[in-house]
Design brief:
Layout (H helix, E strand, L loop, with lengths): L1 E4 L1 H9 L2 H12 L1 E3 H8 L3 H10 L3 E4 L2 E4 L7 H10 L6 H9 L3 E4 L1 H12 L7 H6 L26 H15 L3 E2 L5 E3 H4 L31 H13 L14 H4 L2 E3 L4 H9 L6 E10 L11 E11 L4 H16 L4 E8 L2 E11 L3 E11 L1 H4 L7 E7 L1 H9 L12 H6 L6
Helix pairs in contact: 2-4, 9-16
């Protein structure tokens, strides 16, 4: 049989056995308190006391440890040293050291393999050399620490996903709550609830995807559907004339992949809104488009709404400055009138990028009463949307939107991601 020291055995050989340390303390004082012994030996105090007492070196008198005999040598420590040097010891000592977990058995074949490695001049540290303890007898080659080792590419989050998470954290820190919504949406929430006419060109098959199966879904509560229907047909109580057509329930029931995140805002207004309140969503959207460097059929949108009794268009401009500045660091802004089917007034927001100059960043407006009143909201609702993929391209230094979903391992491995 072959035996080697355990980690605890190595510690005892190097720093002293617990019973040895205890006796050395008693040599000069003859007696010490239990608390003093605990301060020195820590968690090993009981081990030291038990073995010293077992050998008749000490006795316990109330809360004191009293020296009875100074040993000529420490047999267990000598045995540990012999095993470390590859010498043999008697069976009784082996049993004691095994019971104390200071040595462990090594398989003969492992030990033999380690001896052969030394015999034939192998200088590489192997598991066999470690397990057998024979690594202590090897003179290892010196290492040149100036040599560059192999590059290890550790797993990390995708740079684009990390940017989206960064934006999410920024908005939450500004007091916004995140909205949810299904990826496969009803046309009702995507268009009708937002007062977008059923004959609007954006609802044509060339502008919006549709589902082949299942084709139709279930509309929400009857009162919401009736309110939206009447608003489309004649304006209902909103003060509007509506669109002047007969609203088609079947068309509103059609399933589509979500075309914009404003559908999440419509759902939030209908279910569980708080006044005052601030909400946002970062979701995947889908539209038929010619794929090029700046367009894709699948993209992310960042959408938000702010609700309170006395909000104004001026408030919205200030809020947009704060949000965009927090996300992009841009400090200079430009606003110009714009049109969206569900907001009035509406505005386009541009920011001055230090390298790219003026770039379009966001669109915003105040939700029309034809949107809010049918959903049971009588407060002012400010709505904004940011072209989050465009910002990601700027932040990540890519010129083609398709690179946000790249399988280019070199770029993924080497791209430095600074968002925290």
């Amino acid at each position: 049989m072959r035996y080697i020291l355990t980690e605890e055995g190595k510690e005892y050989l190097q720093k002293g056995m617990p019973e040895e340390i205890l006796i050395e303390l008693l040599k000069s004082k003859n007696e010490i308190s239990l608390n003093d012994a605990k301060d020195i030996l820590k968690e090993k105090v009981n081990i030291g006391i038990n073995w010293a007492k077992k050998n008749g070196w000490i006795k316990i008198d109330k809360d004191k440890i009293v020296l009875q005999k100074i040993p000529e040598y420490y047999e267990h420590k000598i045995a540990l040293k012999k095993i470390a040097e590859g010498e043999e010891i008697n069976e009784n000592l082996i049993k004691v050291l095994l019971s104390r977990n200071l040595i462990k058995e090594v398989r003969e074949d492992i030990y033999s393999k380690a001896e052969n490695q030394i015999k034939y001049g192998v200088k590489t540290l192997t598991p066999e050399l470690l397990q057998s303890g024979l690594w202590r007898k090897i003179e290892f080659n010196e290492y040149d620490v100036s040599i560059v080792g192999n590059i290890i590419y550790r797993g990390k989050r995708h740079p684009y996903q990390k940017f989206l998470d960064f934006v999410r954290r920024k908005l939450i820190s500004l007091g916004f709550k995140e909205m949810s919504g299904p990826t496969i949406e009803l046309e009702f929430w995507n268009f009708d609830a937002l007062f977008q006419a059923q004959d609007h060109p954006s609802r044509d098959w060339t502008q919006t995807f549709s589902l082949k199966y299942p084709k139709l879904g279930k509309l929400p509560e009857k009162n919401i559907v009736e309110n939206v229907k009447k608003t489309h047909e004649n304006g209902w109580i909103t003060g509007s004339l509506g669109w002047g057509y007969k609203w088609d329930e079947k068309k509103a029931s059609r399933f589509i992949p979500r075309a914009h995140t404003t559908a999440c805002s419509a759902r939030q207004l209908a279910y569980g809104i708080e006044i005052p309140g601030k909400y946002f969503a970062i979701k995947r959207c889908f539209r038929p488009d010619v794929i090029d460097a700046t367009h894709c059929v699948e993209f992310s949108q960042c959408e938000g709404i702010i609700i309170d009794e006395n909000l104004s268009f001026r408030d919205m401009l200030g809020i947009l400055k704060t949000i965009i500045s927090e996300i992009t660091g841009i400090k200079e802004f430009r606003f110009k009138p714009d049109y969206y089917p569900f907001t009035e007034p509406s505005v386009e927001v541009s920011g001055k990028h230090p390298k790219l100059g003026w770039i379009e960043i966001a669109g915003a407006g105040i939700f029309r009463e034809e949107v809010t009143i049918p959903l049971g909201i009588n407060a002012t609702v400010l709505a904004w949307g940011i072209g989050i993929d465009r910002l990601a391209m700027i932040k990540l230094g890519v010129n083609d939107i398709r690179e946000l979903f790249t399988k280019n391992l070199k770029w993924l491995r080497e791209k430095e991601v600074l968002f925290v």
